[in-house]
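REQUEST FORM: STRUCTURE PREDICTION
Request ID: SP-0412
Submitted by: Lab K.M.
Chain count: 1
Length (residues): 342
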Amino acid sequence: MFIENESINKRQEYLTYIKGVSFKIHLNKMVIRLEGKDTLDYLHRISTNSLKSLKPLNKAVTLFTNEKGRIIDRTHVLVYDNGCLLVGNGCEKNKLFSWINRYIITEDIVSTCASNDFSLIEVLGEQSTGFLSLLLGDKFLELNDNNYITFEIAGEINYLFKDSYNGNRFSYLILSSSDSEIVINYLNENKSFYETAIIPDVVYKSYRIENGIPKQPFEINDSINPHENGLISDVSFNKGCYIGQEVIARLDTYDKVQRVLKGIVFEKVINPELPAKILSINDEEIGIITSIVYSEMFKKQIGLAIVRKKYLENDSEFYVADGDDRIKLIITDLPFNYENIY
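STATUS: Completed
RESULT:
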């Protein structure tokens, strides 16, 4: 009985973060400041989205891909007069910065790694919209998917913008020139009747995986293209050439995408080293598991995987190795829900 009550309490704790207002401090971030008259034209030429017509206070999401169409990083572009801030993931600290500088030759652009000058805080939870609306008043009404707004905390400028995956499940990101603790304290001091908290890493991980949201370096890296991990909405097919464009366009035109992001449900709880191979009943490798978590919501160990599409066409049995054992897996659509788990 004690175990059952403990399980219920963990689920209730999880729901407190997801149903309320939660803050996630992103320590692995990359912020690059780019200034000069050629900035937007240059970024337009080397990344996947259409950027050159953006104006100050506009925001866009764009991917940087290599020659094989695989992802270097997913970034937010925040435009201001004569330049922009580029906000990426930064798990490999200098990779994006080096990639961008690699192609600057005669362009009027000055690039600066500004990661240490900013903190990045994600605001999520079902009540986050109401909370930020109360905090920022009419200014919050100006915010949409294609812009950002600014507000002050202790005399410092902060930037608020939305993030989304496949057009839904959005959260808000605050890019601040203040220390993250100062921002969190300000948010807590002005929370009114809302319950706010810093979300634990394991709860955030569950939220991300349950909603099928790819993250660097697990589902966003230079072995995966945007067709495979569901980031194809961050690609413009009308803008013309960019690095990796031929490969990405060819995959789309000829329906040659061979892999896709899926959810997996484990028969029992295990702890494999990631990435782990998914095997067919004939021991063929059919995909790789990239993220795993025990879900308090569904009371199952679940994960994300990049899976070969051809093996999903017929009902079959799939496994992952756990030492000498073979643990059965269910491969399912995303996001997770009770229907596709049970």
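NOTES: Residues 1-5 have pLDDT under 50 and may be disordered.
Reviewed by: T.R.
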